[in-house]
Amino acid sequence: MPSPKDPQKLQEYKDKMSRIAKERGYGKWMTGKKASEETLAKMSLSQKAIITDAERERRSATAKKLGYGKWMLGRKLSEETCQKLSLKRKGKTYGEIYGEERAVIESEKRRSGNLGKVKNYSSQESKERLKSSLIRTGKTYSEIYGAEQAIIESEKRSLGHLKRWEGKERKGCRDKKNGETLYKNWRFSVFERDSYTCKNCGKTTIELHAHHIKSWAGYPEFRYDVNNGITLCIFCHSDKHPENSALKRMATKYAE
Ligand SMILES: [Zn+2]
Description:
The longest helix is centred in the middle third of the chain and has 19 residues, at 147-165. This protein has helices spanning 7-24, 37-50, 53-66, 79-89, 94-98, 100-116, 124-136, 141-145, 147-165, 178-193, 234-240, 245-255, and strands spanning 208-212, 229-233. The protein has 12 helices and 2 strands, in the order ααααααααααββαα. Helix 11 packs antiparallel against helix 12. By secondary structure, the chain is mainly α. It has a two-stranded antiparallel sheet with strand order 1-2. Among the domains are: 124-164, no CATH class; 178-255, no CATH class. It binds zinc ion. Zinc ion (ZN) binds next to strand 2 and helix 11. Zinc ion is lined by residues 198, 200-201, 203, 232-233, 235-236.
């Protein structure tokens, strides 16, 4: 139902919509109010009803076909399936295997799974693994594998790495030709405007950085906008990017 242009009709329309919202228990006026238990039960029922039996059938068939979902719990994939899957996944990013959205979930699953795990080092298998990894620690490939095999092993790993990045544009990477000049000019203008002073702590005789207020990756349109830049010293800049471990290392090194 489109909203009418006539102001009087618009008001009538708004009143009507708000009346309906009130009757049915949704909309702005519900903000901060709790839905009654009855309403909640109704909502949950209607949510469930959205997935029809046919749809559930279809999803479960897909899950079975692709080998994921509840029914797989506790089952092992056949050796053949494992090999096929592993071949299919080789050299691919999670995004390519699962699609961008599920990739986030999959990588989080593995990460949190590993984080929470108490490793059982006492099993024979684990002991063997540890031992063989200790034997390799601090050694070059040729020490581990012998000179000839070393070349093959190192090639294997480097190829895998290259393959993963093949044809891919790296996010947030500076465009080498044109962007580098633009970036240098932008940085210079930010420093000039701020008189080569950290705008957070006021230090001047210190390594200075030009920080993007709106992020480089998130706001390409403001990358070279001087108003989107601020001069920060290496420490204040590192504080702005707690996720950037390289910057943190730089700052720590600078402090030494
Ligand atoms: Zn500072």
